[in-house]
Amino acid sequence: MTTTVAAYAAPSAKAPLERTTIERRTVGEHDVLIDIKFAGICHSDIHQAREGWGEAIFPMVPGHEIAGVVEEVGSGVTKFKVGDRVGVGCMVDSCGECEPCRSGQEQHCVRGNVQTYNGVGKDGEPTYGGYSQKVVVDEGFTLRIPDGISLDVAAPLLCAGITTYSPLKHWGAGPGKKVAVVGLGGLGHMGVKIAHALGAEVTVLSQSLRKKDDGLKLGADHYYATSDPKTFEELAGTFDVILSTVSAQVDFGAYLSLLKTGGALVNVGAPEEPISLNLFSLIGGNKTLAGSMIGGIAETQEMLDFCAEHHLGAEIELIEASQVNEAYERVLNSDVRYRFVIDTATI
Q1: 0.90 cut: is pTM over it?
Q2: Helix (H) or strand (E) holding 253
């Protein structure tokens, strides 16, 4: 039997989100029904609700940073039981058969993973995200949230946490390595925390010094303003890894100049417009310009366990569901420190 639940949805592109009801599917053999407690607001929610990344599916219930408690399990579920603390990230299914899926990289499923919202499930129905009271998810795409992290600060880890953890691990951030994080926002603040916990020497590169005190408290060793031309002169050839977390246009050539020989500039931000690049800034110094997109399910669980071990959670501002449209505008104005999280009891 399907379940009717309250949710906040965008009825059309660029329209304000409003309270509505949606249907959640019947709990299948390998499904878990999750009573959602908290849902983070990611900048990508805004991109998609406003069709900044292309045509989208409406009505849209955003939200892929979901934390809650298992309310019901299917007859074949073995990984979870009622009462378990769980999370759901950016995807809820994949083909399970292609090489990326078999190697634990479901985010790169050749047939396309099923997004938590603004996607289409294998049943042909649109997916709806975490700005809602409950969700039904296959146990294989459900994550266990360790007891060491409270659910409200854990919710953003399901996107912001794994989006920064995965490339930092892949590109070897750790003791003896110098890592720069571009932007101190929802993604960037987690990048700083994780890079510091991995043992790297961490520098924040931000437009201004407005958030310097925050950056140092979060674990940064250094903090520079990119609006100051002297920054690029002083830091030339400094970093092993630069993690760019911003969704705005940046001068990639200038940032590539900050890398050591063989260094990597890894982009996890997704600007709506294409970038241009003089390839000589990439060729000189045998440098790499790379991208990264979340992580697989196993790596996401690894990230949650790592964060619990190191007592890491997101810095959040808890809001009621009725404040979601105001929160969207504040995100666009960089007026949040550092992640809005919806208390779904207010939906």
Answers
A1: yes
A2: helix 252-256
Which segments of the chain have a pLDDT < 70?
A: none
Do residues 89 and 159 make contact, with C-beta atoms less than 8 angstroms apart?
A: yes
- Cα(4)–Cα(107) distance, integer angstroms: 29
Answer yes or no: are the C-beta atoms of 3 and 14 closer than 8 Å: no
Run of H or E residues at 137: strand 134-138
One-letter amino acid of 281: S
Q: How is residue 63 written in tokens?
A: 């939200």
pLDDT of residue 283: 87
Contact 264, 76 (CB under 8 A): no
Asked whether 105 and 37 are in contact (CB, 8 A), the reply is no
Structural element, H or E, at residue 303: helix 297-309
Name the residue among 123, 125, 100 with its Cα closest to residue 113: 100
Asked whether 145 and 151 are in contact (CB, 8 A), the reply is yes
**Closest alpha carbon to 316 in 30, 17, 9, 42:** 42
How far is residue 131's CA from residue 152's CA, in Å, rounded to a whole number? Answer: 14
Residue with tokens 């409406």, as numbered in its chain: 58
| Per-residue tokens: 143 | 């994550």
Q: Is 43 helix (H, G, I), strand (E, B) or coil?
A: helix
Tell which residue, 317, 304, 268, 261, has the closest CA to residue 286: 261
